[in-house]
Design brief:
six-stranded mixed β-sheet, globular, 8 helices, 322 residues, alpha+beta
Length: 322
Amino acid sequence: MTAMVLYCALAWAVFLALHLVLNGRWWPWLAVSLLPPVALAAVPLALLAAALATGGRLAAALAAGCLLVAWPQNGINLRGLRRAAGGEGLRLVSWNTQHWNQGGDPDRYYAFLRSLDADVYVLQEYLNGFEGGEVWDIDDEARLRAEFPGHHLAVGNNSVTLSRFPPAGPPVPVGACSLRVDLRVGDGVLSTYNVHIPVQLTVMNPLRPAFFRDMRRRAAARDREYAALVADLRGDPHPVLVTGDFNTSAAIGDIRRMPRSLRDAIGACRSVLPASWNARARLRLWRIDWAFTGGGARVGSYRFRDAEGLSDHLVQELTVTL
């Protein structure tokens, strides 16, 4: 039994070494990095417990080392054990709407949006579509203006930003999938980035060559979107709020591309294992929706809210101060 635990610990150590080297650097590893991030803690913890129970010191050392090395990628938020910070400031919600109420009741959809009562709405997937990649642009601007008469509307790159604060300039497309809207807040300007990074793969037979061609194409699109986002952020002189659907978990190396000057809002969240997908499942294991601040903007409170069956993503709710 001791030898079996040691072999398992060695196998996990080899896998983890490959993950740390290839993750975010070699496009085929995108499929592997879709594992639930918490597995990077659960597996070495189970190995550590088995090693201690069987007296395997080497296996225990390997398991403990794997746990520590991969800790930044396991998605566990120990800061959630601290007392919550104050919730004052600009109220913002960020949400992937999953194809903008496609096939649903528009009255229920807009009633839900209004119930969020935000100063700023950052909404993704302002489009209709179906599995297979074909999408249709939509025009719901008249309804948006009628439902939110006190908000300014910006639309672009299949994204919607609604704000009670006036724009400081025209909306700026970032790459092909994100939108920057500069808002005049008091005497300053807050740059809001409405982000939607393309998903890694299409659900299809992984043994077909088309699966790998599609994944490589999507990896290239993700590279372009991250590069455009980072380049725009580095040239932005204002306080920034960067939020949306990154289609990237803590276990996916792409999230390391975000500038280190930005602060992950998860430090203001009370959840120890925060997750935003799949909202319709009882067990949610992935946080792929993120929020970052920088340049003097700070998050006071941050949480994920149920989408009431309207999307497969939870709603991000946060307060921001400048």
